[in-house]
Design goal:
This protein is of the alpha/beta class. It has helices spanning about 85-95, 130-140, 165-170, 190-200, 210-225; strands spanning about 10-20, 25-35, 45-50, 60-70, 75-85, 100-105, 120-125, 150-155, 175-180, 205-210, 230, 250, 260, 265-270. It has two domains: about 10-105, Translation factors (Elongation Factor Tu (Ef-tu), domain 3, Beta Barrel), CATH 2.40.30; about 120-235, 3-Layer(aba) Sandwich (Rossmann fold). A six-stranded antiparallel beta barrel has the order 1-2-5-4-3-6.
Length: about 280
């Protein structure tokens, strides 16, 4: 059940901002008009992005593809969800319609649902929610609920960070929120209600994206119960093409076996990596 190769050949492209909206104090969502190669993107894939006229930051930054968008029935571009945490994302938040950025993508390997999945659990932590909006929309392209039983377990620090939850719930996917400060949902780690749901009625497949500590807990739960699981790793990347070797993660099968998140991931089957 290892994810398959990317569906599209990555391309360098100029893209222009269509809209840039603030979702909360720290989160924003930007829509980029780009070419047809990006229409073949799969949930879980990412792009490398930079402004063409600046060397600050010097390197491109990786962003998960949050959605694709269409205008009058034709492909318009992609959306990116971002959290303002430093200079690169601060500059991203200041972009206006018409501004140009440079993209490399779609990159990496995304989530793969094998035939026969009828019950699907999604576990997201913080900005790890980004690829799941894309996935839910792909599961229900006509705007209705997915054909399968799909649930999202979404953990954040505070209620203000529960971005995208309402939109996903509107698609017919129940959302189980948790917050570190108790301001919304249960006051506990997201893995607590996830574990309870798994014990009550295990899914056919578990997909997770979020901080490494959360993924380690999800991995332990999946291994103990023998549940197929795929995890999307949030790794630092400099090139997105495997040249810099900066996103190496330990693979299973010995300490010398490493895998690269930009090429073989960022989505990995649990049996392929060490967590």
């Amino acid at each position: 059940m290892t994810p398959q190769p990317p569906a599209a050949t990555p391309v360098f492209a100029a893209a222009h901002v269509s809209r840039n909206e603030r979702l909360s104090s720290f989160f924003g969502r930007i829509a980029l008009a780009c070419g047809e190669p990006f229409a073949a993107a799969e949930p879980g894939q990412f792009v490398m992005l930079r402004r063409p006229e600046t060397l600050d930051p010097f390197l491109s930054r990786p962003y998960s593809i949050h959605a694709t968008w269409f205008r009058e029935g034709r492909f318009g571009g992609i959306e990116i969800l971002y959290k303002v945490v430093g200079p690169a994302t601060r500059r991203l938040s200041l972009l206006r319609p018409g501004d140009e950025v440079r993209l490399l993508g779609p990159l990496g390997r995304g989530f793969r649902l094998p035939p026969g999945v009828r019950r699907l659990f999604l576990a997201a932590g913080g900005v790890g929610i980004a690829p799941f909006r894309f996935l839910v929309e792909r599961l229900a392209p006509q705007g209705g609920p997915p054909a399968m039983d799909c649930r999202l377990f979404f953990g954040v620090r505070t209620a203000e960070e529960l971005v995208c939850a309402a939109g996903i719930a509107a698609r017919g996917v129940p959302v189980v929120p948790t917050t570190d400060d108790g301001s919304a949902g249960a006051h506990c780690p997201v893995t607590d209600p996830l574990a309870a749901a798994v014990e009550a009625d295990p899914p056919d497949l578990l997909l997770a994206c979020g901080p490494r500590a959360m993924l380690a807990c999800v991995a332990d739960l999946a291994r103990r119960r023998g549940i197929p699981c795929q995890v999307s790793l949030e790794e630092r990347m400099a090139c997105g093409l495997g040249a810099c070797l900066g996103c190496a993660v330990p693979g299973r099968g010995g300490p010398s076996r490493y895998r690269h998140a930009c090429l073989e991931g960022p989505v990995f089957a649990l049996e392929d990596i060490e967590l």
